[in-house]
Amino acid sequence: MNDIEELLAANAEYYRAFNSRDFAAMSRIWADNHVSCIHPGWPALMGRDAVIASYRGILTNPLQERLECSDALAILSGNEGRVICVETVNGMALAVANWFKREGQAWRMIHHQATAIATPLQKLAEPSKRLN
Amino acid sequence: MNDIEELLAANAEYYRAFNSRDFAAMSRIWADNHVSCIHPGWPALMGRDAVIASYRGILTNPLQERLECSDALAILSGNEGRVICVETVNGMALAVANWFKREGQAWRMIHHQATAIATPLQKLAEPSKRLN
């Protein structure tokens, strides 16, 4: 795999760990230092302890929906890189940046941020059209 | 200034340019390549042309409110760095990550993302208390 493929694979592994509620894998994905995370609606979490604690809560929450990742685009910058993608959860779309840092052979996450995409009024109206 | 101070100064310059509607300065702040931007509610913008066009619209919008930046924390990683901060606009708070890359003597922006922070019900109720 080249660097871009490795970045996209690391991003895919994040969603695999999330959706299979694999907390050990999620813990490995996150780097040891200089991490931050902004979940939708949350204040920023700074540092590994706060970030990992948030995932422990999310991955053990029986009401947590699956995240579908699509439209992933990787941007490489030396030993760091980001994947810009779309998360779909329960029919809602979020614009996401996942940042990784190369550590040895692995790409480990240093920042995750998901921002809800406002739904156009036209799309909100679509379900009612289907009733006709 | 040390690197952290330079990063915080670059972040402050972003908000100065924004609030003074200084499009030329905003254009200088953004790097030439590998930029991305996620405004609240928007899909991700990829590439300098799309990002700069968005700021042209925002900075010439007479209804655009001022952004107040607070709680800025810088995290340095070699020639890149991020500032995690809070934007307050019209009483609403957003959790923000601003990413910069060193280019010569300058720190130039490579990614901006702002995510609305959900307001606790208790805070929503506060204004009515003031009426008593």
Features:
six-stranded mixed sheet, alpha+beta, 132 residues, homodimer, 6 strands
Question: Explain this structure to me?
Answer:
2 copies of one chain form a homodimer. With 132 residues, chain A is an alpha+beta fold. Chain A is 35% helix and 36% strand. Chain A is built from 4 helices and 6 strands, in the order ααββαββββα. Chain A has helices at 3-19, 23-29, 48-59, 121-130; strands at 36-38, 45-46, 68-77, 80-89, 92-103, 106-116. The first copy, chain A, has a 6-stranded mixed beta sheet, covered by helices on one side. In chain A, a hairpin with a 2-residue loop joins strand 3 (68-77) and strand 4. The N and C termini of chain A lie far apart (49 Å). The relative contact order of chain A is 0.18. Chain A binds chain B through residues 34, 36, 38, 40-44, 46, 73, 75, 77-80, 82, 84, 86, 95-97, 99, 101, 110-111, 113-118, and chain B through 34, 36, 38, 40-44, 46, 73, 75, 77-80, 82, 84, 86, 95-97, 99, 101, 110-111, 113-118.
Quote the beta fraction of chain A.
35-45%
Category from helices, strands and their pairing of chain A = alpha+beta
Number of H- or I-type helical stretches of chain A? 4
Shape of chain A: globular
Number of strands of chain A: 6
Helical fraction of chain A equals 25-40%
Summarize the helix and strand pattern of chain A as letters. Answer: HHEEHEEEEH
